Amino acid sequence: MSSRGLALAPPAKNVVVYRNGDPFFPGRKVVVNQRRFLTFEAFLNEVTKSVRAPLAVRNLYTPRHGRRVAELGDLQDGRQYVAAGFEKFKRLDYLNRGRQELGGTRNSGGLQVSTSGWLFPPTFHSCRNTGSSHAPGCFYSSVFRNGDLLSPPFPLPLSRSTPLQWDALLATLTEKANLRSGAVNKLCRLDGTQVSGGEELVNGDYYVAVGNEEYKKLPYLELLVPQHSAYKTLWYVD
Fold first, then answer.
1. Are 30 and 48 a contacting pair, CB within 8 Å?
2. What PROSITE patterns does the record point to (predicted)?
3. Could you give the 3-state DSSP secondary structure of residue 17?
4. Considering the entire predicted model, what is its pTM?
């Protein structure tokens, strides 16, 4: 009976889930296993945790047309979906976000532009794939996630030779920080004061990526960066 039950069990499906209204969220792969999730609500609870939704996920939609998924059996293997609470489906180009480098072109201002219209800064891409954290012409800052005392800061490499587009930098921070609150809307110093432009960034300094919420003043440096941490060696090399 047990072997027959296993043979008749529906195969697991792999889906990718995006956050409703968040154009920068990279999507999360979720396995739909009907032996594990006996109800659609149980699966939505797992999606809530997987995508780090600020509120409980209660609806899934198809990304292009916003059709609501009603039950587990409606999910198709290899497809993408958008997770939402009780709010309406927000129409965005979830499947073609600007941080994707393939198919991009450069405009006169030096920004690489994808076919979806989103921007990302060459100041970041020109320094990140050098194979060394001390690339010539680059300087480095480190960024904490607002209110997060479990994750170490991530390095933010920038080029001194390319003008920095602030909106594009915030898009890059959104991708790297992956805040529970969604997109990064501002960058703050450790004392909570807000950075208003790229010219204010200091090589080797630490910052905090913040979403729509208020800045949370916590001992980020003391708890997440040991005295001899490698982060303190990320200095500019000319």
1. no
2. DC
3. strand
4. 0.46
pLDDT digits (tens, 9 = 90+) for 91-134: 888 887 543 333 333 333 333 333 333 333 444 545 654 444 45
Report which secondary-structure segment, H or E, holds 194.
strand 194-195
CA distance 22 to 229: 33
Name every residue whose Cβ is closer than 8 Å to that of residue 54 and which is 6 or more positions away in sequence.
180, 181, 182
Q: Which range marks the domain in which residue 169 is found?
A: 138-224
Classify residue 119: in a domain, yes or no.
no
Contact 18, 11 (CB under 8 A): no
Instruction: Show which of 42, 67, 84 is a domain's final residue.
Output: 84
Residue 3 forms part of a structural domain: no
Question: What's the total number of domains in the chain?
Answer: 2
Q: Which two tokens stand for residue 158?
A: 């920038």
- What does the DSSP assignment read for 121-160? -HHHHHHHTSSSSS-BTEEEEEEEETT-SSSPPEEEEEES
* Spatial distance between the Cα atoms of 92 and 84, rounded to a whole number of angstroms: 13
Percentage above 90 pLDDT, the chain: 30
Q: Which phi and psi (to 5°) does residue 145 adopt?
A: -100, 130
